[in-house]
Design a protein that fits this description.
Shape: globular
Distance between the termini: 54 Å
Number of strands: 24
Number of helices: 16
Number of domains: 3
Strand content: 25-35%
CATH class of the largest domain: Alpha Beta
CATH architecture of the largest domain: 3-Layer(aba) Sandwich
Largest sheet: 8 strands, mixed
Structural class: alpha/beta
Strand order of the largest sheet: 9-8-7-10-6-11-12-13
């Protein structure tokens, strides 16, 4: 594709010069290949204008930037190259989204499970469906390991282009607050935007809950999604419903278009009667806990307005046996049930513990930690939550990143040490897991929380192979 063709369609050009054939596109100077268009901008912590020379040495033939450069190479200066990047990628990859029906799911918790429910429903409806999210990218037999919840724009559009070529019809993607705040989804139009809930997370990046909320709301701005499906039991969800021109509500405690009655929660799943636009249908889930009833209502509402029959929605939901690391039952040992969950926020941990507490016939054990170099304010809050519901707590390391794991544990400990609940601190996560499993007996439940489906532990910039499920299975010999 000609550089001029990309620039002509891009808009917001301040100045431009030269033309050439572009065979690829990159915003990472280290990944530039011969023939690439290099897009650079002043980011939050780094200004990639400083590495234009490196990109050229690696084969860049053109540049999109935010100020005039001294290099004799075709280039275009734009007002905001970060905003231009997804638009340029969309142009380069031939507007692949035009051949796909896109659904975005945002919210603090529940995004992954909701997208997997939707994929299962639409597969049951005979449609080729794809998932993009925290657990990776999945379509047409292809599984791509996760990097980010929402991929960076250039990679995202390359994937969308391949999905379109493979005949994918529906794409269900998680829209992270970071991606929305940084404009990574600019130019995409969604058939439906789904909102799950809004609770504390990512304050290390956003600073305040108001800033975090504004990022979520970007998905529901004019022209971004044709329909909004939102949780009426959530304050931000009600705001979305009151402002979007086509809002569909789901919930249990407030009036809603989609709601559930006669909810029966068990360790191995749940059942309820779904009222979906006044049509009643019995639903069975293999996923336990009330928050998964909410996720199912969200998925059902979205599927229904996209034309799926209620009977097929029910079929798709029952076919989904598990979602990796999302309150996943991984073992039964010594009469106890062991669950792994991604719960890494105060609300996520509380919902999982609250659900398991109601189902537990013995003692409820909770093993968890908090991520290093992330929102520190939630650490004592999560400690307090664990003390509220669990009978015994094991504090350990999560992804310490560049922090001392012991320091992170001490900050969690501040929230529970005066609550009267017994607890221990064991820094090494595998040792802590073995200790916890040694405690459980008949009727007990152990929740191993924080990492869920992650297959690594990040320590000092290195991702070491680690999987809670594999560690558990190794310990119990299964």
């Amino acid at each position: 594709m000609k550089f001029s063709q990309i620039v002509d369609d891009l808009g917001q050009i301040i100045s431009r010069c030269g033309d050439c054939e572009v065979t690829g596109i990159s915003s990472d100077s280290r990944a530039v290949k011969e023939g690439d268009l290099f897009i650079c901008y002043k980011g939050l912590n780094f200004d990639s204008h400083s590495v234009i020379d490196e990109a050229i040495r690696r084969g860049a033939v053109a540049v999109i930037c935010e100020r005039e450069i001294d290099f004799q190479i075709p280039h275009a200066v734009v007002e905001n190259a970060r905003e231009a990047m997804p638009k340029a990628a969309r142009i380069f990859y031939g507007y692949p989204d035009k051949n796909l029906k896109l659904v975005a799911v945002t919210g603090t918790n529940g995004k992954t499970t909701t997208t997997h429910m939707l994929e299962s429903i639409f597969s049951a409806n005979g449609k080729k469906a794809a998932i993009i999210g925290t657990l990776g990218i999945k379509y047409c037999g292809k599984i791509i390991s996760p990097e980010l919840t929402t991929p960076d724009p250039i990679y995202l559009y390359s994937i969308l282009a391949d999905m379109a070529d493979c005949g994918v019809e529906y794409v269900f993607m998680e829209a992270s607050a970071h991606a929305l705040a940084l404009g990574k989804l600019a130019g995409l139009h969604f058939e439906v935007g789904v909102f799950t809930n809004f609770t504390q997370d990512h304050l290390d990046f956003f600073g305040t809950m108001d800033n975090y909320a504004r990022a979520k709301l970007k998905l529901f701005c004019e022209g971004v999604c044709a329909c909004a499906v939102a949780n009426s039991d959530d304050e931000l969800g009600r705001k979305i419903l009151s402002t979007h021109k086509r809002g569909i509500s789901y919930g249990l405690d407030n009036p809603a278009d989609v709601f559930a009655i006669d909810v029966d929660l068990k360790v191995d799943g749940s059942a309820f009667i779904l009222n979906i636009f006044d049509e009643l249908y019995e639903i069975h889930l293999s996923l336990p806990a009330m928050h998964n009833v909410y996720n199912a209502m969200a998925a059902a509402a979205c599927a229904k307005i996209l034309g799926v029959k209620t009977s097929v929605i029910a079929e798709g939901l029952i076919k989904l046996k598990t979602v990796e690391g999302r309150l996943e039952h991984v073992a039964r040992f010594n009469g106890a049930d062991i669950f792994v969950d991604f719960a890494h926020t105060p609300d996520g941990l509380e919902k999982s513990l609250q659900s398991l507490k109601s189902l537990c016939k013995g003692k409820l054990y909770c093993l968890f930690g908090c991520g290093g170099n992330r929102d520190r304010t939630k650490r004592p809050i999560m400690g307090k939550i664990a003390a509220k519901y669990a009978d015994f707590i094991i504090l350990t390391s999560d992804n310490p990143r560049y922090e001392d794991p012991f320091d992170v544990i001490c900050e969690i400990e501040e929230g529970l040490k005066d609550k009267g609940k017994p607890y221990v601190t064991v820094t090494e996560r595998d040792v802590a897991t073995e200790y916890a499993i040694g405690l459980v007996g008949d009727g007990d439940i152990l929740l191993v929380a924080g990492k869920g489906g992650e297959h690594y532990q990040e320590i000092m910039g290195i991702k070491h192979s680690y999987d809670d499920k594999l560690v558990i299975k190794s310990i119990i010999g299964s």
